[in-house]
Structures are given as C-alpha cells and as structure tokens.
Design brief:
About 15% of the residues lie in helices and about 20% in strands. It is an alpha/beta fold. The strands form eight sheets. A 15-stranded mixed sheet has the order 9-10-12-14-17-21-23-25-27-29-31-33-35-37-38, with no helix packed on it. An eight-stranded parallel sheet has the order 16-20-22-24-26-28-30-32, with no helix packed on it. A four-stranded antiparallel sheet has the order 2-3-4-5, with no helix packed on it. Strand 3 (about 145-150) and strand 4 (about 155-160) form a beta hairpin.
Length: about 700
C-alpha cells in the first residue's frame, strides 16, 4: 500500500557517548558477533530521547497507541529532538534528552519492547522500583550488571557487579551490560517513524481474526466428532460425580433413568451405601451384566429390578436359581427349563420368572427357595406384575406400600417372618383375586450359605384386616390371613365379597360377633375363624350359605344353640365347634342326618352340650371323624353310627391316632361312663379328661 507520508532518512550510524565506564557494553550481541568465537562487540541500546514530533498522536502504530492515555498524548505532542539512538560509543558525548512524564516512561517501555528488548526489560508499575534487566553477557565475562527504573525521578540507575551505582542523568535512558576493556561496541542508530504502519500480518487485528478462525474450525470439528461417534461418547466419556467415582455417560444415563422410574422414597444413588442392594444391582447392570444394556433397551428397568431382588434376598443362599442346585431345580445356564439368575440369558428365562409374549415380566414364583431379607419397595417398578409368590421363605420386615401400586391378582407371602401393619393401599387392588398372608407369626433360623444362620422372630402382621375396607376387594376369591396378630371386628362389609370362596382367619385376635351380612357370601366354601376372640351366636342366616363346605369356629367365646338352619347346608363337609367357652348348648338335632356330605363332626369341649347322639347321624355315610368327648351327652352310641367306624373307611386319616372319640371311660374311674360306646377308637374320662386309645 502506498504511504503518503514523507519517508524518513535512511538510518545512519551515530557515535553516541555513554554515561558508563569503559567496561560497559550493549544488552544484545549482534548477529555477526554471535558467529565469532572471540569476545564479541555488542549492539548497544544507549539512549532513547524524545522522539515524538509535533504531529497527530493517532499516527502512532496501534500497539504503541494502546498504552497511551489522554495525558500521555498531550505530554508527547512536542517538538522532536532527533532520531532514536540505538547505539553508542564509549567516547562520544551523550545527547541532551529527557523523559517528561510517567506516560513517556510507559511509551518508552513499549518502544523498547518493540526493539527486541522484551527479553531484557520489563515494565515497572508507576510508583514502584524494581529490576528491569539482570543479565550476564556471556561465559567469557563474570561481570554482572543490573538496571532499575526509579519512577519517582524518571531515571535509570545501573548497577555494576562491583557494587557501584551507575546513574544516568535525566537527559536520557540507558541500559547496558559490562564488557572487557579490549572490546569496542558497535554503535547503530535508526530513526523512528511514527507514521509508519505495522504490517497487517503482525497486527493485533490479524491475530484476533486468526484466533477466531481457528476457534470456529475447532468447534466444527468437535461437533462432527460428537454426532459422528455419539454412542462411543456415551459409553466412554468420563463424568465426575461429586461424591462417587467417575462414571461414564452410559452409567450416568442409566442412573438417571432408574432414579426417575424405579427408585422409591426419594432415594438416589449418590446417597446410597455400596452394600445397598439397589447399588449392587446398578453395579451389576453397568459393569458385570454381559448384555450391557443401555437406556434404549426396553428391558433395562425390569432386569435391574430383578437384580435388586436377587441382592435383597441373598441370592447365594437360594435353593434354586444358583449354580449349586442346577440338577435339583432343573436349571442350566444356557438352556433347559430355567436359567440361573444374573446370568447372561434373558431375564424371562430365569428360574421362577414368568413373562408375556412381549418379554415383559408378569409373574414371580420363588416359593420355598430360602429367600432371606426384606421386600424392596422397588418391586413396584415391575408394572405388569400379576403374580407374586414368595411363600415359605425367610422374608422379614414390613410389606412395602409401593407394592400395591401394581395390578396384582395373586399375592402369596405366607409362611415368612413379616411384621407390621398391612398398608391401606392393599384395599385399592381391585384386580386382586388371591391374598395369602398366613403363617407370619413365627420364629426360626434362616440358613445362609457364607454366614452363620440368621435367627428371625416375628409376631406376625397386624391391623384391622377384616374391617370396613375389606369390602373393596370385591374380586377376591381366596383370603388367608391365619396365624398372625390381626385384630378388630369382622365388619358387615365382608358380605360384599360375593366372589370369595375361602376365608381363613384362624389364630388371630378378631373379636365381636359374626355379622348377619356374612351370609351374603353365597359362593363361600370355607370359613375358618377358629382360635380368635369371637363372641355371640351363630347367625340364623348361616343357612343361606348354600356353598359352604367348612365351618370352623373352634377356640372362641361363642355361645348359644346350634341353629336349625345350619342343617340345611347340604354341601357341608366339616363342622368344627370345639373348645368354645362358655360354649354351645342344647342338643344335636336329628336334622344332622341331612348333612349327607359331612365327614368331620367336631363338638368336643362344649360342656353345656347335652342330649343323646341321634341315630340319623348314621345317614352321613362319608363321616370319618366324630369327636364328642368333654360334653354332657349321654346314652349309647347308636349302631347306625357304629356301622360307620370300620377302619376301612378311615384310610385318609392315617395321621390321626383316633377318629371316633367320646366320654366312654368310667367317670372318675368309679362311676359309669357318660356315653357307652363299643365302636369308639378313643374313650375319655369326663371328669379327669384322661383319654385312652381303644383297640377295636
């Protein structure tokens, strides 16, 4: 580009005096001297006098003008004093120059840096005194020289290694280092042209544009890499967790998905202990599972939940589902009826897991498998689960309320060590058909594989199980809750269970009388309410329960007569009214012969029951168990009844030592028996309660 300003004269060599002794030289050794093996002459920066002529300050190069303040511009607009002296001769007088202001100092510092002195000088902030140069010339000289700027006086003080101070007058600024006496410096002078423009390629603008171009290019490349290798990044890029070990993006996404859709009670992995079954399951899914699922796999969550169950229930102690019992459980790792849990196979093939045609888990049957531990609430994540069969294991703790978010149709948690109140959410399961919670009032040892047996004791489940809410389970067909600690009265709403076929609530603490509405359960076949605290009488409406096959009310505090309507229950097979206090009274009606399907008649320990044994009882051809001892019944056992006692009719009762019992021993040893019976298998003393087996 053509420059309209007049060119400055060609630089010329000027011999300039030096304020230093003969043993000083320049900071930089020139190129020719570097090639010489002898002690070299030096290129000396001697003085930098005023160089700015009276012209527009904006004509200065941009990188100089940046450091000039408004005050600087004003101070520097003065007549020029001549060319910039970049060289010196030790014999020439120094030019009469001076530095005017702090701004000039800043400008001169910038100017000196542009003259390749940046390796030898540094700026000193206004008001400070500090070293500017500290440099040893070369290995041929041990002399040392340093220079400082005193900003209060605007002069340079030079210090020789000998310790003496070499001060410049305010006429100029000099920087030098010592040389030997036999070396003569080469003096060079050049003129500074403020109107000269900096080359574009060396300008700040060029540097900025270049940096922006490189930045944009790098960003474009990065975007291409991200979208081109997205899956690899997800699996391998490391993310730093605040409190845990670094994790991959794959694991981070899996964690987030599980926390959002599976973990209950506001749980997060960051707050879990490493021994937590949920954390162990995560580690297995991420690091050990050979399938290496990602968040895009539809079975990720259900596989994780099954892993949680495995770790919660002490998988290594299982009877089936582990390597130790492949043969007895018909399990192989690759094929066969079932596969091992936490194996590389699809989870639908694992032992006890049932899935639909879409591969979604719909059932878990791990009964009698030595499961040890509590039920994790995360089981609620199996959204399509219908069957939950965990009976006869070593499961303890409470039933998580989250479990009843599912559309379960069958729940079997019987014969475990569960405790606590059954959550109210249970009664919202409109699809529930079977509920088996019996047998949790127990104690015992849970045999663990790698540890000592775990002793567990439970008082069973508790709460108002048969309260008003029970009427909501209108699709219920089987309800077994015996051997627990349930209490409360049997609510009239129980009559709304029109589909119920079996009610088994023995050995609890239910109280109150039987509601009349109980007879509305027209499909009920078995009613087991023994060993409670039920009072009152058998409702007359009992006769409407035409499907009833078993009526067990033993071990309560009931009273009254046996209602005549009961004898119209022609499908009745078992009538258990024993051990009631004060007990039933009256006589056994001759209508008992209408119970043609009766197999068990158990009336013992009702001390107020009187009368004789009606001969119509002989019409009950299927009768195989009669217990009439510890009552006030007298007379002689009818022959029609004795004809039923042939042992060939009682093979099904091999577990029982006796099947036909009455007070047929001498009363109190000396008195005649209450009931003469020649066909009884067991005779008892009415007074002493002593019973003896009789060999018929």
């Amino acid at each position: 580009m053509e420059n309209n300003r007049p060119l400055m004269p060609k630089p010329e060599v000027i011999e300039a005096p030096s304020p230093f002794d003969q043993d000083t030289c320049a900071i930089e050794v020139n190129d020719e001297a570097k090639k010489s093996s002898s002690p070299s002459p030096a290129k000396v920066v001697g003085y930098i006098p005023e160089v700015v002529q009276e012209r527009d300050v904006s004509s200065l190069p941009p990188d100089f003008a940046d450091d000039i303040t408004e005050k600087t511009k004003n101070d520097m607009a003065r007549p020029a004093a001549g060319p910039e002296v970049l060289g010196c001769d030790t014999e020439a007088p120094a030019p009469d120059v001076s530095m005017q202001t702090n701004a000039n100092v800043g400008f001169l510092s910038k100017l000196m840096q542009s003259s390749r002195m940046n390796n030898d000088l540094q700026k000193v902030a206004p008001g400070e005194t500090g070293p500017v140069v500290e440099k040893t010339r070369d290995s041929h000289s041990s002399s040392h020289y340093s220079s400082t700027i005193d900003n209060d006086r605007f002069i340079v003080k030079s210090h020789h290694s000998s310790g003496k101070e070499l001060s410049l007058s305010e006429k100029g600024l000099a920087v030098a280092c010592p040389v030997t006496d036999d070396e003569k410096p080469v003096c060079v002078a050049s003129e500074y042209d403020p109107s000269a423009k900096t080359s574009f390629y060396k300008s700040t603008t060029c540097h900025i544009l270049t940096a922006l171009a490189l930045l944009l290019t790098g960003a474009a490349v990065a975007v291409g890499v991200v979208f081109g290798t997205r899956k690899e990044i997800e699996e391998n890029v490391i993310v730093q967790s605040p409190t845990m070990m670094p994790i991959t993006h794959r694991e981070a996404r899996i964690r987030q998905m599980i926390e959002d859709n599976v973990l209950e009670r506001n749980a997060t992995f960051i707050d879990m202990k490493e021994a937590d079954s949920r954390y162990l399951a995560l580690d297995w899914i991420v690091n050990e599972d050979r399938l290496q699922l990602t968040v895009t796999d539809p079975n990720l969550l259900q596989r994780y939940i099954l892993a949680v169950l495995a770790f919660s229930f002490d998988l290594i102690s299982w009877e089936c589902g582990m390597v130790k019992d492949l043969d007895s459980c018909n399990i192989t790792d690759n094929y066969g009826d079932y596969s091992l849990w936490l194996s590389r196979t699809d989870e639908c093939a694992w032992y006890g897991v049932e899935c639909d045609n879409s591969g979604v888990v719909t059932g878990l049957d791990l009964s009698s498998n030595n499961l040890i531990g509590p039920i994790p609430p995360e089981i609620s994540g199996l959204r399509s689960l219908e069957l939950l069969a965990f009976q006869e294991n070593c499961i303890y703790g409470t039933i998580p309320q989250e479990m009843f978010k599912l559309s379960l149709s069958e729940i079997d948690l019987s014969w475990n060590y569960l405790s606590g109140t059954v959550p109210d959410e249970l009664y919202g399961l409109k699809s529930l058909v079977q509920l088996n919670l019996h047998g949790n009032h127990d104690e015992g040892n849970c045999n663990r594989t790698d540890q000592e047996p775990l002793y567990v004791e439970s008082q069973g489940l508790e709460g108002d199980m048969l309260g008003p809410s029970i009427g909501q389970l209108q699709n219920l067909e089987v309800l077994q809750v015996y051997k627990n600690s349930f209490n409360g009265s049997i609510a009239s709403e129980i009559g709304q269970l029109n589909q119920l076929e079996k009610l088994s609530a023995n050995s609890n603490s239910f109280k109150g009388s039987l509601p009349e509405q109980i007879s509305r359960m027209s499909n009920l076949k078995e009613m087991w309410l023994g060993n409670n605290s039920i009072t009152g009488q058998i409702p007359e409406s009992i006769g409407y329960m035409n499907s009833l096959e078993t009526l067990s009310l033993w071990g309560n505090s009931m009273r009254g007569t046996i209602p005549n309507s009961l004898y119209y229950l022609t499908n009745l097979k078992a009538l258990h009214l024993r051990h009631n206090s004060p007990g039933f009274w009256g006589t056994l009606s001759s209508d008992v012969g209408k119970l043609v399907n009766l197999r068990e008649l158990v009336l013992n320990n009702n001390p107020l029951l009187t009368g004789t044994v009606p001969s119509e009882l002989g019409l009950c051809r299927d009768l195989k168990e009669i217990r009439l001892h510890n009552t006030q019944m007298t007379g002689t056992m009818p022959s029609e009844v004795c004809n039923l006692t042939a042992k060939k009719l009682n093979l099904d009762y091999a577990w029982s030592e006796s099947f036909f019992e009455a007070d047929c021993l001498n009363d109190n040893v000396t008195l005649p028996p209450f009931l003469v019976c020649e066909c009884c298998s067991t005779c008892c003393d009415h007074t002493t309660k002593l019973c003896l087996n009789i060999d018929i």
